[in-house]
Amino acid sequence: MRHYEMVFIVHPDQSEQVPAMVERYRTMVTGRGGRIHRVEDWGRRQMAYPIQKMHKAHYVLMNIECDNETLTELEHAFKFNDAVLRHLTVAMKEAVLAPSPMMKEEKSRSLTDKPTDRPTERSAERAPERAAAAATAPAPAAD
Q: Where is 65: in which H helix or E strand?
């Protein structure tokens, strides 16, 4: 069996159907003796260019290990599912288990978006500079 990485883009109106679609594809692979190594739901994202006059779509990544017949069946399912706008399958040399760069980006973004109660190191470093600049600034003239 060979390893594959698949990304498919789902119509944005069908986003709520994605978990059922992933489960259906998962059973197709595991039912024929294959394995799922990684499934990542990237959610709704802006596309690089419009497809069917849509600018956003739902992205899903799957890393699987299966035989050629299962791969053909999966691609056939992608092709004849109207909700799947595009799909890409890439043969891999080995199973990929680590999070993809897209998920690493999401995790780092979620960590940096959290509001903090304390000032950042950078603003704390500049506090003395601001105080010195304010002390040397000329006082406003009184009328």
A: strand 54-66
